[in-house]
Fold BQ5605_C010g05878 protein.
Amino acid sequence: MSSSYRTKHQPIDPSVLPLMDPQYVKFHNEHVIYMPKTEDTPYSPSIRAAASKGLMPGSSHIRKVAKTEEFVIGHENIKVRAWTPLGEVPADGWPVLLWFHGGGWVLGGFDSENHICTAMTQDAKCVTITVDYRLAPEHPWPAAVDEAVDALQWVVGEGCTKLNLNSSRIATGGFSAAPKLTPPIKISFQLLNTPVVDSSIKEYTINTKAPWLSPDRMMWYRRLYLPNEADWSHPDASPYYAPDSELALVPKTFVAVAGQDILAPEALKYAQKLKSLGVEVETWVVEGATHSVMNLEDVMDSAKELIRREAEALNEGFQS
């Protein structure tokens, strides 16, 4: 069907257009503009099928690795997938990145961020393990948090033996929803990508016209994952409100921020709070990008550069 006859569900607001990266605008007008809005769709498990495969052609670049393995772990028999890099195993074992996919704790899955996981695996020379945590609304908060703890415990225990891991070089990371899934346990390094760190926000006031993640969409996710509003400011749902004594123990952190994202202000505020508590933080702002930047490596040069720098920072974190 000609694009001139297709319904344009998500046109870019004219006020935002001059602020956007031209490469993103081209992609948006070829693909995203025709996608129905998630928040206008009544929830059904069937909507996960497309989301779990990632957005094509934006995130199609999968790196070659030595091997890919899957394991069933924890009390709830959740699955984890491990990528091992090409090359010789270090004498003290592989460093490991424990990765939690995005999707608002409602969408996403094993296959939605393979491009990121394999990039980190090869470029940072680590084993990357992604967690197929249970999703809301069938499994609301704190199910995903509990499974993050199970996954970390498996990594430092059975996972070390099965995958030849170095338990003293563990990093955690994720995209969007994922940072809240990282438990407050001492680790070597942390990657936060366009993170949600304050779930108590009821009204967004900055970047509200930005493409991709609208205020209505954000609240659609939140009410499915956190149906009890009293939980919104809990530190496991809003890391920004964790006690300073805990935040001061956060490891060296890389925070990726998209310039045109409603979550940008809270990410920057969180990064500044960590810095004020003595945590070493690198903040990487991608101007003209939307919340989806990590999934657009094949579309935007700035997304490709972000993933390159992130893998580099991860490798540096393992060495420090």
Observations:
- The longest strand covers residues 165-175.
- The beta strands are 67-73, 78-84, 94-100, 127-131, 165-175, 189-193, 252-258, 281-286.
